[in-house]
Amino acid sequence: MPGEVPEGDSSRRTPSPALAAAAPKAWGGRDLLLFIGAVALALVVANVAVLAGYTALQSVAGWPTRPAALRDNAFLLLALQLAFHGLVLGCIYLLVVVNYRQPFWAALRWGKPTAHGVLRFLLGGVLLSLLVQLAPPVLPDREDFPLLRLFSSPEAAYALTAFAILIAPFMEELIFRGVLFRVFENLVGVRFAVAGTAILFAGLHVPEYWGAWNHVLLILLVGVAFSLARGLTGSLAPSVVLHVAYNAGLMVAFFFETNQFRALGGCFAS
Fold it and tell me: How far apart are the C-alpha atoms of 185 and 169, rounded to whole Å?
């Protein structure tokens, strides 16, 4: 129909002249620096808040206080991740809605996918997880890495699985294929946005897979797939669906590989 905004492209609605004049230009280098600073501050605040809460409760609950024990405590690290992601989500909301004065989802290019599109990207994510698990090693590798050590009990494994499927895909895509992709695309171009966000996405996971370099290489290739989905469709939704299905495929495979998380210690790549 005349004047109708195509599905998934609602962010191209022309704002009123007064609003356009008042709102600052979005997705520039200044915003990138502000976002990086906000993320760093969120990480510090989340660490302080979670450790303060742990300290207040540990004497009552009898939790361990050794640094090594805290470093490998899945539940404490999940609490830290939840606090950090909550703060980052708030920063993104302030950046888009308060600073840019734009609708949150439209500004981040969230185009509502069709049912057929959702199914296609779900199947694509599952297929991607299968390819990653069947990929032959090309570098010297190790099976004992920091992420795997967090799967220390069935309870920890279930908690990590829930986080990997329900929280991590949305927040990681919002950061990399949402904010950073838009900034890189605006400043340099879509090709740089695809490559840059894939490399940064892999870099985020290096500490989890330290020493397991095959996993890092695979994460880089997976990041390229997510970024390509974002770049080719012009929408954030496909990469989120791909990421959810990819993580779910890995976790389901790990679930059966470890006899329903009762025989932990097997090989894991996510």
Answer: 21
- Hey, what are 82's tokens? 């939840």
Please give the helix or strand (H or E) that residue 166 lies within, else none: helix 154-166
Q: What pLDDT digit, counting tens, does each position of 155-200 carry?
A: 999 999 999 999 999 999 999 999 999 999 999 999 999 999 999 9
Q: At what angle do helices 237-257 and 115-134 cross, to 10 degrees?
A: 50
pLDDT single digits (tens) 129-162: 999 999 888 777 777 788 888 898 899 999 999 9
Cβ atoms within 10 Å, residue 251:
20
264: Cβ contacts below 8 Å, ≥ 6 apart: 151, 152, 153, 154, 157, 258
Phi, psi of 45 (to 5 degrees): -65, -45
What are the phi and psi torsion angles at 7 (to 5°)? -60, 135
Closest CA relative to residue 222, chosen from 107, 120, 127, 106? 127
- State the Cα angle at 218 between 216 and 221, rounded to 5°: 115
What's the rounded Cα separation, in Å, for the pair 185 and 188?
6
Mapped onto helix, strand or coil, the DSSP state of residue 67 is: helix
Measured between alpha carbons, how far is 163 from 175 in angstroms, rounded to an integer?
Answer: 16
pLDDT tens by residue, 74-105: 888 999 999 999 999 999 999 999 988 999 99
Tell me the average pLDDT across 103-113. 92
Q: Which two tokens stand for residue 22?
A: 């008042």
